[in-house]
Amino acid sequence: MVETGHFALILAFALSLVQMLVPFYGARTGNPRMMAVGGPVAVTGFALTALSFAALATAYASSDFSVASVWENSHSLQPLIYKITGTWGNHEGSMLLWVLILTFFGALVAVFGGNLPATLRANALAVQGAIGATFFLFILTTSNPFARLNPAPIEGRDLNPILQDLGLAIHPPLLYLGYVGFSICFSFSVAALIEGRIDASWARWVRPWTLVAWMFLTGGIAMGSYWAYYELGWGGFWFWDPVENASFMPWLAGTALLHSAIVMEKRSALKIWTLLLAILTFSLSLLGTFLVRSGVLTSVHAFATDPTRGVFILCILTLFIGGSLALFALRASRLTAGGLFHPISREGALVLNNLFLTTATATVLVGTLYPLALEAITGDKISVGAPFFDLTFGPLMLPLLAIVPFGPLLAWKRGDVFAAAQRLMAAFALALAAVLVTALLVDGASVFAALGVGLAVWLVCGALTDLAVKSGAGSVAPAIMLRRFAGLPRSVFGTALAHLGLGLTLLGIVGTMSFGAEKILTVRAGETVELSGHTLRFEGLYPAQGPNYSEDRGRFALLGADGSTASEITSAKRFYPVRQMTTTESGIKTIGFSQLYLSLGDEATDGSVVVRLWWKPLVTLIWGGGLVMMAGAAMSLMDRRLRVGAPSRRRKGTSAVPSASLP
Amino acid sequence: MTRKQKRLSVIVAGLAFLGAATGLTFYALGQKASYFYMPADLTTASVQPGQRIRLGGLVEKGTIQRGQGATVAFSVTDMHKSVKVSYTGILPDLFREEQGVITEGAFGPDGVFVADSVLAKHDENYMPKEVADGLKAKGVWQESKSE
After folding, report:
1. Which of A66, A291, B63, B86 makes a 20 to 30 Å CA pair with B55?
2. pTM here?
3. Which of residues A453 and A340 earns the better pLDDT score?
């Protein structure tokens, strides 16, 4: 089975070369039969990669320690679920997952791309094949997951304990679906540049892929953030760690792309910019892969540091980013400019959105790469953390968030900012009320915290206003309004949901950072601790045994108002003997949207235990908002207009009447 | 406005915006980035009390003292010099004597480094890269035995 997987991987590499060369040559020479080769080859390549991945997963599930990667990252006593998720909890396996998803997207283009212009489809598949070929070569030459050991060891070395978690099972696949999903936008952009032709239908094609990638990337980042929050035991949800930034940059650029593609589709403007953004977004995904996988950064993601891998990925990076940007420089002038618009219009608002988002991406890029560059040039080692990003990223985001509710209410071509402001009066009043209530009624609320809450309420109410206005609130009878509401295009709901989710995430961030409480203290069994109105009694440490670890469970009783035990929270110190490693399992109790978080420290000689306690108000909204954003993207995807291959409902064609701009 | 003028004004506004962002970025890099030092570097570098830095090295043997409550004192050494560090909080799971650590914080007026975060390795193969490089530069690095 293992050799089958290895062989399938080599075949997939060969097919990716075919997919790169034949359709491309066919498109150049106008040979339809050669162009048609791309589709079946892409589907077969995906099937072979899937077979290869299944072979590796089987080796992991059956603890076949004759495979080096399994030996290094698995153990026979591990629960089956972590044996399987361990398949991508290491460098080789995660790269295999990367190409699996790449070929998956290629196959999707092949299957659903029937109504694409033949040359565009052939060229896009060829670019997709080229990306695949380089990564297959990378895996086969530097990171072969199927390398054997002889003699085979009896027992494996265990998966890194902090990766033995369900969060890890979900986070990498989601993140990769996002990262790699942007490769489709990249391939379509390069294909358009090769052809030297681009029009609104191109944007209609690329938008669903952007939405899909963006949706998964949002989920992947949210999942990663939640995993770090509960698994690392530090109680933080975002550390501005270079590895986090590596996934955040494509998200920011992808968000910009999502918005500029709307302008391109609806108004045929910003074509060249959209194309460039698509290239940049995937370039940032590649950069992220390089940063995380090359071992340039030390982090939980740097499984093994092997300089040849870093150099290889750097070559891939240079080839694709340099190549696509050079092609862009050569061909962009041949693309025709689009329609005119007034600065105050939907287009103008989206341009502003892009300006802020790309600048924010640039500050994150500088903050992430500057320490690496400085060390390479002067040898000085610096770290750029939250204080830097608070000063640069923060001021860029705040004005952007403040103007978000205006965007969807402005008309295309020439908007009326006063009319939009009038419609937003209610939202503004509610936001103002939230600021006042927070400032006056919540103890210890700073001005910034109150304004932050106000901004979050502004975003949420702004999103709801958008829906209300588009259903005709205030001008038509409630029954008609309800009917209109139900008949609104799904993409309008998508926009509103995504913006609402953004507001919720902001509310979570402001709530946790401004109104949270934290205590570090030592406790003995029977002692009680008070934090933000919650009383906890430490019941003591109890030893327990897991499948591949032993642990000391610190049990805490959350006391009700009458002093009786309302519920129990358990935090544990786990010891994994194979790796000689201790981990902390945080104890979390969710109360409404807030959480009580506690993390166990070391036991002192006198029998007392160090405990760190946090009260995190509204913290779950941070990730809940991410889920709402994902739901918004899913809603937009279901829009009839975007459904791939769906016949147009309107006779006039799909782009003539921008459905999102109904009054 | 003509198309050309309009485009020009958009470009100028965009550039001004980018310029402001660039200025802010460089200001923040100058102010907010924290430098990494090993104990021996501190004799030559001038680090003011209160200036945020990251201090890395090995936890010196026999120096870990648990004080009142959750405060811990220990020394960080690079085999040439050592620096006293005080930290209140929960130490990382893999914090041990003679293991690499990176602490972040600032010197107090009494010369004790008050750390607000302590990072240790997070698996058995891992030594913080800065610490490993620093020890190699000082000639005290020993290649760890491979298992």
Report:
1. A291
2. 0.90
3. A453
